[in-house]
User: What shape does this take?
Amino acid sequence: MEAAGLGLFMISACSVVIVLEHPSSPLRQMIATSLLRRLFIGIAMGLTAMALIYSPWGKQSGAHLNPSTTLAFFRLGKIEPADATLYILAQFVGAASGVMLSKIVWGQAITNPSVSYAATVPGATGSAAAFIAELSISFFLMTVVLRASNSRRLNRFTGILSGAMVATYIAIESPLSGMSMNPARTFASAAIGRIWNGLWIYFTAPPIGMLLAGELYVRVRGPEKVFCAKLHHENNKRCIFLCNYKALSEHDSGKERM
Assistant: This one.
């Protein structure tokens, strides 16, 4: 499910970038402003993320779709080592499969320099700026995920908040780093397209950012306030994690009685 989810995300990413950025695309010719094109790409990818999180498979797997997210929840004690390892492996395989399928479907269009396999590479401001940007956006995304997913009131909106942040980051931050937050997502485009620019940034900054967010969360709220590793838990799907979601309901009920 994690492999398929990230594979579908990459198919969506490659397709949307081709439709909006390829020079021969009618939409590319209609929308001359790069900021406006990034806005539409962001909206499309934000909606894709939401759809995957709230899909039956996303509800089942927890919809990490990102090794950085899985590592953060592993560090927070919510995932067994074997499950974390298999999740991360599946995410890399799924992302690469998605880009490969996109290459088969789109052919030479995906190799155009304006598309470049939807690769995420450092922008004109350089590697240092890209590293700081990736670390920052990863930190803030994981902070929102932890605050929302561990709130009985906000839990059901975690996917909406995450998708909205993805859309915003693509529109605003992508000129700095390409907006990845995801080692598997970046590796997939890099491996299939042989575009290795700044790969180390995307293997270090996103995990560090999300791990820092997790560390800050437990220092402020305590490790017992991390109830599960699912982004969306208000469903009837089986949970494979070290789950204590029932305690969240009891915790919030107790606060309401107070």
Summary: The chain has a mean pLDDT of 94.
